[in-house]
Amino acid sequence: MTKIAILTSGGDAPGMNAAIRAIVHSAQHNQYDCIGFFHGYNGLLNDEWQTLTHRDVANVLQFGGTILKSARCRAMCEPQGPKQAVNTLRKHQIDALIVIGGDGSFRGLEAIKAHWEGQVIGLPGTIDNDLAGTDNTIGFATAVTTATHAIDKIRDTANAFERVFIVEVMGRHSGHIAFHVGLATGAEAILSFENCDSADTKQQLDRLINQIQVQQQYNHDSFVIVLAENLWPGGPQALKAQLAEQADIESAVCVLGHIQRGGSPAPEDRLLATELGLEAVNAVTDNRTGIMIGKQGTALHDVPLSHAINAAKPVDARWIKAQHDVLTEYLVKHRK
Ligand code: ATP
């Protein structure tokens, strides 16, 4: 009988449980056995697992986190790590390994593939949306929704005190969350990798100060800056200090942090996870391997793992243009 193993790895993302559930349901429908390894690749290295049936995945799709737990596993990056993982897969007579995670997790999957005859299939599970070959990753929609609601609340208090707020959002090294959230909340400024050179922040700082001063002159209530994590040297506190030193602008800082990773998955993530999970089992049946299942438009398709990992996944140019044009127009109008 065909035997599938599942694990979740790297940063957890809301919707991972929905994906596990879909895989288990489809596996049982096809009369495949299914087991889950715990704590990312650590579960494979330490042989930590459990059988998964319908009962184990009942009432999980509405919860964030992952019932299989997630973790980083440094040993997988050592030469012995993937070989040890393969020993465990052989011991359990696994035919296909499905990993739900981000680009790092897919590198681990490729390393296993180099030593193993079984099928390896990835599902894009990361809030960062930084995997090529799929419009959205599992967890992205929820993270954007959570951060949007949080900034709406910040806006209330920022308006009341007529404050400048710097709100740091997640995204690792990409600005998908920053741009979506910035536009969805009407942030006055979005500072992200796509529109800001972190090696030369002086020009960006001058521009930002100019924008804030123009706005304050016209007595607008508040000014929200959405800042992508890992962008500004010294982080949001350094930006706050620079605004104060250079232009006597007071600001408050809010780092949204891990609340963006948790919470009940948005319906979009539940549906995406379900669709991708079902397709992963179809891929097992069809003997497809070395792929991530992606979705572009309404079509599901196989993306070579190397492409998903290495190809660029730029923020949609429409969003960057919208932000740029709106701000430029605003400045030009108010400078007169
Ligand atoms: P996210 O970006 O959402 O945090 P991710 O999957 O990219 O998710 P990483 O921490 O980069 O998260 O990687 C997860 C795990 O994948 C690592 O802890 C490690 O076990 C494995 N991994 C990462 N890179 C490699 C590699 N080059 N070779 C083997 N395994 C790797």
UniProtKB/TrEMBL annotation:
- Recorded metabolic or biological pathway in which this protein acts: Carbohydrate degradation; glycolysis; D-glyceraldehyde 3-phosphate and glycerone phosphate from D-glucose: step 3/4
Domain of life of the organism in this record? Bacteria
UniProt keyword Nucleotide-binding, yes or no: yes
Q: Which cofactor does it need?
A: Mg(2+)
Subcellular compartments:
Cytoplasm
Which sequence ranges form a coiled-coil region, renumbered to this chain?
none
Give the chief site where it resides. cytoplasm
- InterPro entries according to UniProt: ATP_PFK, ATP_PFK_prok-type, Phosphofructokinase_dom, PKF_sf
Gene Ontology cellular-component annotations: 6-phosphofructokinase complex
Give UniProt keywords alphabetically: ATP-binding, Cytoplasm, Glycolysis, Kinase, Magnesium, Metal-binding, Nucleotide-binding, Transferase
Q: What is its EC number?
A: 2.7.1.11
Q: Name one Pfam family in it.
A: PFK
Residue intervals of the Phosphofructokinase domain: 3-284
Q: Which GO molecular function annotation, any one, does this entry have?
A: fructose-6-phosphate binding
SUPFAM superfamilies per UniProt: Phosphofructokinase
Homology family: Belongs to the phosphofructokinase type A (PFKA) family.
Q: What is this protein called?
A: 6-phosphofructokinase
Q: Which organism is it from?
A: Pseudoalteromonas rubra
